[in-house]
Amino acid sequence: MGVKQISKSLKASGNALGDHFYQLKVLSQKDIHDGAYENFHKKLKSLNVDAIKVSELEIFQINIGKLCNQTCSHCHVDAGPDRKEENMSFETLERCLYLIKTYNFKKVDITGGAPEMNAYFRWFVEECTKAGVEVMVRCNLTIIMANKKYHDLPDFFKANHVHVISSLPSFSAMRTDAQRGDGVFEDSIAALKMLNAVGFGQEDSGLIIDLVYNPSGAYLPGDQKSLEAEFKRQLKRKFDIVFNSLFAITNLPVSRFLDYLLETGKYLDYMHELVGAFNPSTLDGLMCKNTISISWDGFMYDCDFNQMLDLKFTGKAKHIDDFDFEEILNRKIIVNNHCYGCTAGAGSSCGGEIA
Amino acid sequence: MANYFNSEDLKKFGNITEFQKPMGDKFFEYYTEVFKEGALTVREKSLIALAVAHAVQCPYCIDAYSSDCLKKGADEEQMMEAVHVAAAIKGGATLVFGVQMMNHVKDNTM
C-alpha cells in the first residue's frame, strides 16, 4: 500500500530539538530543579570507573545518510524524506573502504536513514564483500517496496551475503504503524516475505535476517529471548514468516524519542526508570568499546547516538582524513546522560542485549 | 480522603510491610516467585494478571499489568482478548445462575 508520511523531521519543522546543543542542554538537567537524577559521570565515578575504554576496533559503522522513506516517531537520527542534503559522497565512501581494508575491520555496519537510498550504496557493499568483510545493512524493510528500483534488493543482499538487520517493533499493524508510519507494517511483511523467498532466515541457507524490537513507548524492553520466541511464533502463525534472531533495543533519550518524552511529560519518569535500572555488568559489553561510528560527512564518533549529539572523538583525530589507529584505540569514550539507555536492565546495543 | 484511588499509591505498594513485616515480606516473596518464567511464560502470566485485574476491577492492577504486558511484548489484540476472557467468565458466572432461576421458576409454576 506504500508508506504514508505523518510528519516532517524535527530539523525541517524548526523544532528546537533539531539542534544537538539543545538536546545536550536538556540531558544536562540544567533546567531541572526537582527530581534530578544522578549524572552518568558521577554514577561511573561511584563505581571507581574513570572512563570507558576501547577493547578493540572490530566494527566500522557508517551512517551513510539521513535520507529515509520513513519518518519514525522514535528516530534518533531525525531521518526522513526531507533530509536530502546529508548523504555520504563517493569520495568519503572510498576513504572508508580504504580504512576498512587497511586496518582489517572485521565487520561493516551500514545504517542511515535508509542506506539503500544513497547512490553509491551498492558499489560500496560490493567492494566490501570483495574485500572479504562481513557487511551488515540496517534495512527498514519498506524501502524494498518503496520503488521498482529497490524491488531487487533481496537478490542483491543474497548475492553479497549481506547480514540484514531490520526494525519491526511489533507483530501487529496497530503498534508498528503508530511508531513507524501508516502502511509500514503491511509493506514490512511483504518485504520480509520477499527476503524469506530468496532464502533469508531459512534454515541452512546461511543468509541471515535479524529483527530489531524497540518499545513503542517510555518503558524498557522485556526479556530478549522471550520476545524473540513470541515474535517467531506470531510471525510464523500469522504470515508464515521466519527470521534468525531478535535484538531488543532500548530507546535512548535522543532526537525524536526525546521530543516524544518531553511532549508527553514522561521525560523525568523515563530517565528515573533508566537510572533505577542501571546495571554495572553492562559496561564490559557496550558497543562503543568495539565500534566506531562514521557520519555522512566523515567525522568519527563513539556510537551512532554520540554522532547525533555531535560528540566527536576525543583526541586530535576527529575526521577519517586524519585517521590515527593508535590514538583511536587508546581514546576515552565520551559519555553523557543518554548513556543510561545502553546500561539499563539487560543493556542495549546495535546487537540487542549485552548483559 | 479526597480520592479512594490515587495512581501514585501504586508506587507505595511495598510499604504495606510497614505495619506487618513478616506477612508482607512473605507475600512479596511469593508474588515474585509466582511471576517468574515457569510452565507458563512471563508474558502469559502477565496477560492472566491483566484479565484478573479487570475481573476484580482493581485500577492499580490494570495500570500495572497494562504496562507489564507492553514490556513483555504482548500486543493490543492479545491484551483485549485477555480482557474478553475475563468478561466472558464474569458474564458466564452471572448467566449460569440463570439455571438456578429457571429451576426455581419450573419448581414453582404449573
Order of helices and strands of chain A: HHEHEHEHHEHHEHEHHEEHHH
Oligomer: heterodimer
Average pLDDT score of chain A: 94
Uncertain segments of chain A are: none
General shape of chain B: extended
How much helix is in the residues of chain B?
A: 55-70%
Our count of helices of chain B gives: 5
Average pLDDT taken over every residue of chain B: 94
Strand pairing plus helix content of chain B: what structural class?
mainly alpha
What is the gyration radius of chain B calculated from CA atoms?
A: 19 Å
Terminal residue distance of chain A: 39 Å
Largest sheet of chain B: none
CATH architecture of the domain at 38-107 in chain B: Up-down Bundle
DSSP strand (E) fraction of chain A? 5-15%
Query: In the CATH hierarchy, what is the class of the domain at 38-107 in chain B?
Result: Mainly Alpha
- State the largest interface: A-B, 19 and 12 residues
Could you state the CATH homologous superfamily of the domain at 38-107 in chain B? AhpD-like
State the main characteristics.
heterodimer; A: about 350 residues; alpha/beta; globular; B: about 110 residues; mainly alpha; AhpD-like; about 65% helix; about 0% strand
